[in-house]
Amino acid sequence: MKVGIIGLGLIGGSMAIDLRRKGFAKQVLGVEADPVNAAAAEKIGLADRMVSFEECVDEADVVVLAVPVGAAVRMLPQVLDRFAELRTVNGLDVDGQGSDRKVVIDVCSTKEQLARCVKYHPERRRYVATHPMAGTEYSGPWAAMPGLFDGHAGIICDAEESDGRAVKTVERLYETLNMRTIYMNSSNHDVHTAYVSHISHVTSFALALTVLEKEKDEKHIFDLASGGFSSTVRLAKSSPDMWTPILTQNSDNVLHVIDTYIEKMQAFRKAIADGNEDEIRELIEESNKIRRIIR
Questions:
Q1: pTM of the full structure
Q2: Interatomic CA distance for residues 30 and 33, integer angstroms
Q3: Which CATH superfamily is domain 190-292 in?
């Protein structure tokens, strides 16, 4: 299996490491638009070869779009267009095995807009919409690490829209990464990620802005910040290039979650302002029920 990864940052680079290390990929082709990141990826050895976008799509059996979702929306139709061009040359399959075996996946945090942009594409069944629920607040080739995906959920969306063989290839890819495969549709995926992922980042960004605005003495922030603050605000170090298109593409769901979050914050504010210890305790005890789900 030859795997082409477009975007060798945290997710793409970590995939490259484990897919090659565990034998899924015989060869990894890398694509990086940023020359600094490209040089770093090559030096680190994330890819066997750094190639152009066109070379990657032409040569790879599996193409992974590990780029911000705004870029993925542009690139995905281009990949499928190229698949269509490659299907036959002079009546013969280009790769000698059938270019209809080629698969393209994305690893983005939102799915509905990607699904819409290729819904009627003639090569739609070569695309499998996926989202590995793993990551850190760091980005770039330097952030790539082995074992990043171990034990996490690998989501496949709209599997019925994809070719069965393509889905099986992606299932095997996520099994190789030691992930639990979960199936859902794009719409449900975007709702759920708004609640369990996107709101966490928004609140972390907001908390960081609050502290930076009100606490002008950076030494005090550094000296007094405990583990609780650090763990809550760590997501504020996440890449704006990645998160800006996520929040805009999933805006309806994210806004709904933000409104609910504000309601809960207002409930805390009122209880604290009123000095109502019973209400404060009740809100905290209600929130403690999350222990049943997250240990």
A1: 0.88
A2: 10
A3: 6-phosphogluconate dehydrogenase C-terminal like domain (1.10.3660.10)
